[in-house]
Fold this protein.
Amino acid sequence: MNAPMWTGSYIAVDWGTTNRRAWRVDCGQATDEFEDDCGITAVAAGAFPAKVSEIRTRLGDLPLVMAGMIGSNRGWVEAPYISCPAGPEALAAALMEVPGERAWIIPGLSFADGKRADVMRGEETQLFGAVAAGLCPPDALVCHPGTHNKWASLEGGRVIRFRTVMTGELFNLLRQGSILKGWLDRPAEPGAAFRRGVEQGLEGRALTADLFSVRAGVLLGLAETDEAASFVSGLLIGADVRTGLEEFGRGEVVVMGRPELTSLYEAALGVAGTTSSIVDGETALLAGIKSIVEQRS
Amino acid sequence: MNAPMWTGSYIAVDWGTTNRRAWRVDCGQATDEFEDDCGITAVAAGAFPAKVSEIRTRLGDLPLVMAGMIGSNRGWVEAPYISCPAGPEALAAALMEVPGERAWIIPGLSFADGKRADVMRGEETQLFGAVAAGLCPPDALVCHPGTHNKWASLEGGRVIRFRTVMTGELFNLLRQGSILKGWLDRPAEPGAAFRRGVEQGLEGRALTADLFSVRAGVLLGLAETDEAASFVSGLLIGADVRTGLEEFGRGEVVVMGRPELTSLYEAALGVAGTTSSIVDGETALLAGIKSIVEQRS
């Protein structure tokens, strides 16, 4: 497991549930990339080698280092979770080789205390990458929005504990099948309606009630449907931010991820009176994979 | 509008979004009934007269008095909401006749203050019916679980204000399409797992995070999937009860509705240290429609 993998070019892959992205890396720099919707749930059992060949056809016949759900029990090869607290060296040491495939999978992290359990896959690579690249201090509270937002507490460059809030998934469930269906299709924007939602989410203890009130307000002619997406997004993100700040304390927050989400969380943190800085998730991921490759080379 | 409707037998109908129930009432007693899944969303525009004929074919060629979503903007004829505070006499006075059909629709109630809006259709008939029948005191906090749980504050037999918590709908969304899909199909039961969920829901301010923790617990081998339905039900109902008790104050709660739901709320209220009594929703509905018929006869 601790033998050097290679030196030189490689392909970095972020293989999630519904999408995958891959970058060709030469001399530490991404030189080519592609993205498609071939997430792990779109791959039949036994079909991963063929799907990996597609990547090499596109980007070159190179070793692969992969992060994300590809290492889950529904992925290609399961890479067991590393328990927190955990640092980047533990991740590199537990890298899971796919035998005979010149492919390695980065494990995820887990956290459990007497009451709660939590897991992540993919964000850990971004967290350690951001620290390695100097984009995030080694002691920080990081907020990583996505389908499942992760609040992670870093100390000395290690993830001490973290908590997942399924904000993005809940928004999608509401958009696709709830009484708010049809009102949540336009993109949320960090304007006045979003900020009203955030304020209510931050103060409220009644998210499930506040969501119904959105529908009632429209039925009674007190609210407009074209503001619903931004308001509901604000409501959910406000509740999410309240959870993160209550659990991990206030102070500057590093918001990491895709720009369309980090800008909403930055706005919500501003409403909460908290300063934030933004780290691009793609940059952090590539830095994280590069750091692991360097540790193992 | 205030002309007498009739005296004698009639058909009482509870016509909801996904189901309808109808009872033939002779001399104030239900003598026959039927139920099917022909909710308002299953009826094409213009097809309500034919669907009403089915009811009369089954139960007799009698006048109909209907409560529920049949009076919504997606129903047969819209019966505008009555603003709270409102008593049973306001409901009877605003009964909406469907011209030429020997059919009347009971309006719903609305509530709005500067911040929130709320609506109900169907529960108001049960609330006033329970008071009229002596099943519920005229001053009471009522909890009416369903797809959308209603907390209603009654004073002097009038609904002063109310709040909807979309607990049932959220459970269904999670069951049908979330990361917990496949784990929530068995009926929730008020045992140990349910009570643990209630305790967490009562104390927690992080429902959206606690839900993810259910999945993580199973992935890490710390929890069993066969307890997930009861635990998640407890979590949602616990958060619901916290909302209701915080907003309307503590004291005895009258829980009204279908037995499989009222028993879960009764258990959750017990965990919260609150006494409750149960009123059967069907009995309350029939009493409510009877009371309206008597006021208008």
Residues 165-280 of chain A form a domain with the Nucleotidyltransferase; domain 5 fold (CATH 3.30.420.310). The mean pLDDT of chain A is 94. Chain A touches chain B through 47 residues (CB under 8 Å).
